[in-house]
């Protein structure tokens, strides 16, 4: 009798072990350990630019509020001209099987082929901040929605406000962004249109490639060559700060009016202090969020119509900034 009990106990133990092993295997529905959540990559320009670090913060805060819905991978490049690195980031995100790429391209043309490859790999792509070139998109036979502001209208608003502080026939200079960037082209066009309507003379415009130090050097040269210049219009706030430093170096601080675009915190303080006249706020902390929201919609409904989304851009002056 004791032998039978011993044999039965061994059999029960063996059965329990089999069930335990089977149960552990059946509960592991994701043996690779990969999260079932969506993975969205945010690829920006230079994180050394406060505008893009603010954009990253806004996106990360949004992800934290929606942590059960998606994971966020944030990438940036060392400076605005490092286009090859941004292309590489797109390729890396394709290889890591992200569900979507939300990108602020450093170049409106060069990024399109890589983004076409992403779409062919099944990745949803949303373009923010700097619009991709329409002709190149057509050549590559790809549709990518743009989520962002009307840069020309924003720049014209800033330029018109500046013109109200000048008189007919006054001279100004313009600091452009990267010339292959659509947003840089549009901001230049907006500034020029505002000056033309106000009959203000644009005596020079050069690209400082969005960078403060380069803007300082170029603006110093402009002020030396054109001492009659009454104002400098900068296509972003980093360049506006460079222009302020140039005016100070030329002994014309407070005399040469400066405007920018982006509404970074350093410029907000400069506007309060009267060192910069105005800027445009394209709500950088929300711009990537708008793009992520659009990407989530396209993932949920792959057959949804691909449409652009225009986001706000507002004039910022000393009067509009709260004390």
Automatic annotation (TrEMBL):
Recorded superkingdom: Bacteria
Span of the signal peptide: none
One Gene Ontology cellular component annotation held by this UniProt entry: outer membrane-bounded periplasmic space
Coiled coil: none
Domain Periplasmic binding protein: 40-300
Main location: other
Places the protein is found: Cell envelope
Gene3D superfamilies cross-referenced by the UniProt entry: 3.40.50.2300
SUPFAM superfamilies, alphabetized: Periplasmic binding protein-like I
Molecular function (Gene Ontology), one example: carbohydrate binding
InterPro entries reported for this sequence: Bact_Solute-Bind_Prot2, Peripla_BP_I, SBP_2_dom
Family: Belongs to the bacterial solute-binding protein 2 family.
Protein name as catalogued: Ribose import binding protein RbsB
Organism, as annotated: Bremerella alba
